[in-house]
Amino acid sequence: MSQHHRVTREELSVREHMSLILRRLRSGGFAEFGDLFEPTRGVPVLIVNFLAVLELVREKPSRGHPVRALRPHLRETRPCSTRMK
User: Fold this and answer.
1) Burial per residue of 68-82, b for 16 or more beta-carbon CB atoms within 10 angstroms, e otherwise
2) d(Cα 7, Cα 48) in Å, to the nearest integer?
3) For residues 48-77, average pLDDT
4) How many CB atoms within 10 Å of residue 49?
């Protein structure tokens, strides 16, 4: 029942994904966090994309830099009548 498996390795670059994210933010101005990821490309690409987002945020972007759009925007999701006082 022993079978041989061939494992392939795909080279993924965090820097390249950082550039792709920056291009996307520059062209659209704003992106929802989840929109930066493409689940159909597989788990390794998701991980590299996430690392790229972390690196971009860690670089402390200056004012007007597209990465500032990655900062979380908190929204009130409950109706006004159910807010805690």
Assistant:
1) eebeeeeeeeeeeee
2) 19
3) 69
4) 20
Q: Give Cα 43 distance to the centre of its chain.
A: 13
Chain position carrying tokens 């972390």: 54
Please give the C-alpha separations between residue 28 and each of 5, 32, 83, in angstroms, as whole numbers.
43, 11, 33
Q: For 15-49, how does the pLDDT look when each residue is reduced to its tens digit (9 = 90+)?
A: 999 999 888 888 876 777 788 888 899 999 999 99
pTM comes to 0.63
Helix (H/G/I), strand (E/B), else coil: 54: helix
CA distance 28 to 50: 19
